[in-house]
Amino acid sequence: MPNPDRYAVLGHPVAHSRSPAIHARFAAQTGQLLEYDRVLCPLDGFAMSVNGFAASGARGCNVTVPFKFEALQMAGRVSPRARLAGAANVLGFDGPEPALWWADNSDGIGLVRDIQQHAGLPLAGTRVLLVGAGGAAAGVLGPLIEAGVADLVLANRTAAKAEALVASHAALAAGHGAQLAAASMAEPGRGFDVVINASSSSLAGAAVPVSGAVLRPGTLAVDLMYGAAAAPFMAWARQHGATARDGLGMLVEQAAEAFCLWRGVMPATAPVLAALRAEVDASA
Fold first, then answer.
1. Cα Rg for the chain, rounded, in angstroms?
2. Three-state DSSP class for 19?
3. Among 98, 102, 100, CA closest to 89
4. What is the pLDDT of residues 124-180, one digit of tens each?
5. Which of 68, 81, 127, 245 is catalytic?
6. Could you confirm whether 68 is annotated as catalytic?
7. How far is CA 29 from the centre of its chain?
8. Residues 6+ apart with CB under 8 A from 204
9. How many other C-beta atoms are found inside a 10 Å radius of the C-beta of residue 204?
10. Hey, is 94 helix, strand or coil?
11. Could you give the C-alpha distances from 277 to 252, 270, 271, 284, in angstroms and in order?
12. Which of 45, 146, 192, 239 is the most buried (most CB within 10 A)?
């Protein structure tokens, strides 16, 4: 019996991660022989942790906060979507040396698939507000544009960060006929079709950073967090007549994309998401 290939999620913190359970289900479903763990990295020791994990014979890893920007710099090959985002959440080890490693970003395609497949909302032609301009927003902006949104506003407290993301994605937006603009949190616009909270507000337990005017009845309001962290945003959305959704579906879909990049097979996500949803609801 051959030894299973090794993968893990690396981050700080990482004990809460549901990625091991997700990938275990994917492996069982597809007949892939692998094991998937968690690796807690020191805040000043991410590179050392990755090097050590790769040297142990591991085949790849996921990367979570706060190391996605640093992960991009560690691989000899970088996918176009990771380069555009400036961040990576997937690393593959095709050999012991970093020159043989590759980096990708599955966050954005995970969000798009969750919205379109699980929430049932086609993104083509929609008006979207993306709140935040950090690593999470950078990871999802490109795939949202590629999904055919008509108008995307990026709102952030620090105007320069939002403007920098808009500038780096301007050519992609123009190529897809999308209107892309930066705005302040105070005046981002009104009545969007989709509002996505990619800011740190939910993680920090802070208030929703935009006014309820960004919503209308039927707006899909998505928080990239899930569980207790997303509960205040979702309650706020429902109070304004919006359809609230957390980031659990995105978590499963981005994991499926990573699994496919590593193993060459795309797992079925609906049953995994249903099982994970039941677990999260039961622990609430």
1. 18
2. helix
3. 102
4. 999 999 999 988 899 999 999 999 999 999 999 999 999 999 999 999 999 999 999
5. 68
6. yes
7. 23
8. none
9. 9
10. coil
11. 10, 10, 10, 11
12. 192
The reported pTM is 0.95
| Contacts for 62 with CB less than 8 Å, ≥ 6 apart | 7, 8, 9, 10, 19, 89, 90, 91, 255, 258
DSSP per-residue string spanning 59-86 = -EEEE-TT-HHHHHTT-SEE-HHHHHHT
Q: For helices 270-283 and 248-263, give the axis angle rounded to 10 degrees.
A: 140
Q: Are 255 and 19 in contact (CB under 8 A)?
A: yes
Return the residue matching tokens 């359809």. Answer: 243
Strand 220-223, strand 243-245: pairing: parallel
For the record, the structure tokens of 144 come out as 């949202």
Q: 227: pLDDT confidence band, cut at 50, 70 and 90?
A: confident
| Tokens 């108008």, located at residue | 151
Residue 280 pLDDT grade (very low, low, confident, very high; cuts 50, 70, 90): confident
What H or E segment, with its residue span, contains residue 112? helix 107-113
Whether residue 244 contacts residue 233, with contact meaning beta carbons closer than 8 Å, is answered with: yes
What is the rounded distance in angstroms from the CA atom of residue 138 to the CA atom of residue 132? 9
Q: Residue 220 has what pLDDT?
A: 98
Check: CB of residue 70 under 8 Å from CB of residue 103: no
Helix, strand counts (H, E) of the chain: 12, 12
Q: First CA to last CA across the chain, in angstroms?
A: 40
Contact 192, 215 (CB under 8 A): yes
In this predicted model, what pLDDT tens digit does every residue of 4-28 receive, in sequence order? 999 999 999 999 899 999 999 999 9
Give dist(CA 212, CA 195) in Å, integer: 11
Is residue 80 a contact partner of residue 235, using CB atoms and an 8 Å limit?
A: no
DSSP annotation of 215 = -
